[in-house]
C-alpha cells in the first residue's frame, strides 16, 4: 500500500509541475488571449508530454527507487535530521545523536535521492526544453509540492534557515 501511495505521490508531483510550468512560463505571457479551443489543444499536448515523460524507462525506474526510499526518508524528516530545501533537493539538517554508521547510511540515502531527483529534473528539462530560469522555477515548485506532502513536524530549509512544518 505504501509503495502505491509513493508512486502516486511522485507521479502527481511530476504531472502538476509539467502542467503548471507551461501556464506561468515567462515565454507564454504574450499568448494570454488564446481561444478556449487553442487552450484545450495546449492542455492535451501537455498531458501527452507528461504521459510520454512518465513512460520513459528511466523515470519508471526512478519512481520505483524513490518509492522504496520514501519510508526511510519520512522517518529521517520526522526525526529532524533531514528536510526539503528550496532547490528541490533533500538537505541534511543535523547529525548529532547518530552513530557514524547511521550518519553514513543517512548521507548515502540523501545522496541517492538527490541524484534521482536531479535526473528527473534533467529529463523534464530535455522534454520541455526549459531555460535556466524555468528550471529554477521548476525546482521551487517541486520544493513546495514536496513540502505540502510532508507531515507536520518535518523540517525544511528556506530563505537560509531551517523551519518546522506545522
Would you mind describing this structure in some detail?
The protein is α+β, with helices and mostly antiparallel strands. The chain has helices at residues 2-24, 36-55, 57-79, 100-128, 132-149, and strands at residues 82-85, 90-92, 155-158, 161-164. It has a 4-stranded mixed sheet. Strand 3 (155-158) and strand 4 (161-164) form a beta hairpin. The chain is globular and about 50 Å long. The protein starts with a helix and ends with a strand.
Helix content: 55-70%
| Order of strands, widest sheet | 2-1-3-4
Low-pLDDT segments: 1-11, 17-33
Q: Element order, helices and strands?
A: HHHEEHHEE
Strand content: 5-15%
The largest β sheet comes out as: 4 strands, mixed
Q: Give the radius of gyration.
A: 17 Å
| Terminal Cα span | 26 Å
Q: What number is the mean pLDDT?
A: 78
Count the E strands: 4
Oligomeric state as shown: single chain
Structural class: alpha+beta
